[in-house]
Amino acid sequence: MLIDPAAPLRGPGGRLELARELLGAAQCVAVFTGAGISAESGVPTFRGADGWWRRYRPQDLANPLAFRDDPLLVWSWYAWRRELIARCEPNAAHYALARCVLESAGAWRIITQNVDGLHQRAIAELSGVAPGEVPDDLRPLALHGEIFRVRCSECGHAAPHLEPIDATSVETLPCCPECGALTRPAVVWFGESLDNTQLQHAMGVAEHADVGLVIGTSGLVQPAASLPHMTRQAGGRIIEVNPDPTPLTELAELWFASKAALIVPELLEGLAGLEGGTGRFRP
Ligand code: NAD
Ligand code: ZN
Q1: I need a surface site. Which of 108, 263, 279, 280 has the fewest CB within 10 A?
Q2: pLDDT digits (tens, 9 = 90+) for 162-177
Q3: For 248-267, how does the pLDDT look when each residue is reduced to its tens digit (9 = 90+)?
Q4: Where is average pLDDT lowest: 48-52, 80-84, 128-132?
Q5: Is the Cβ–Cβ distance between 115 and 142 less than 8 Å?
C-alpha cells in the first residue's frame, strides 16, 4: 500500500528513510528506468514538443514499414537523435545508480527502456573503462536496444557504430561489413519483438529482486511495464520516482513525485556502504 505521498519526506521515519531502509536491506535490487531519467541530461522524452516531434509521430518513424518505404527519412531522424544524445552527459541519477551497481558488484541491476547508453556511460566512467568494456554482469539490460549500434537489415550482423551518420543520400548510409546490405539502428521498433534472451534475463532479475526501483517510465510500453509487476508478485517491494503518477504507482509502497536527478542521489547516498542484505556490498 502506498504510503501517503504527503507524509514527511526527510527526518526520522520520513519517506526517504523508509525507502533507504528497504534498499539497504535488499539482497538484490532491480532498477527499471525509462526516458524520464534522461530528461535532465537533455534527452527529450517521446512526449517532447520540439523539433521532429512536431512533424512526425515516433511510431511513424520507429517502425519497420517506414524503414522499408523510406530508409533515408528514418535514418535522418536517427542521425539527428544520435547527434543530440552524443552531446548529452549522464546526470546525477545515472551516476548514483552506477555507483550502486559497481559497489554491489551487480546485486543492483539496471533494466532500461532507454536506447541512449547513458547508464552504461556512467558505469564506464566511474570504473575507468570505455563504455564497450563494461563487464556483462554490470551492463544495463537495454530492452529496446542501443542507438549507437547498427544491425544489418539482411543478415542481422550487429556492431557498435559511434561515428556520425551521413544521411545525405541512401548511398552514404552505413552498410553491413559482412554482406554489404543497408544497416538499420539496433533498436526495437513499434511492432517488433524484444530480444528474447535479454527479456528472459530481465524477467529473472525482476522476479529475484527484493526491491524494484522504478524511475522515469510512463509504464505504458509492454512488455517492459510488466516487469515491476513480476517483482511485486514475487513478494518484492516497489519504490517509484516520477513527477507524475503512472499505472505502476499503484504497485508502489513509496512514490517520490520528483525529478530523478534531484531525488535519486539523496535516496541512494551511502547505501552501498550499509551492512545490509547478504553483505554483498563492499565494506
Ligand atoms: P515516456 O516518454 O513514455 O515517459 C517518460 C516518463 O518520465 C513520464 O512518466 C514522465 O512523467 C517521467 N519524467 C519526465 N521527466 C522526468 C524526470 N526528470 N525524472 C523522472 N521522471 C520523469 O518514456 P518510457 O516510459 O521510457 O517509454 C517511451 C519509449 O520511448 C521507450 O520505449 C523508450 O525506448 C523510448 N525512448 C527512449 C529515450 C531514451 O533513450 N532516452 C527517449 C525517448 C523515448
Ligand atoms: Zn549483412
Answers
A1: 279
A2: 999 999 999 999 999 9
A3: 999 999 999 999 999 999 99
A4: 48-52
A5: yes
Residue 143 has pLDDT above 80, yes or no: yes
pTM over cut 0.90: yes
- Residue 181 Cα to chain centre, angstroms: 30
Give catalytic status of residue 161 as yes or no.
Answer: no
Ligand 1 site, residue 221, Cβ cutoff 6 A: yes
Residue 227 near ligand 1, beta carbon < 6 Å: no
Using a 6 Å cutoff on CB, does residue 34 contact ligand 1? yes
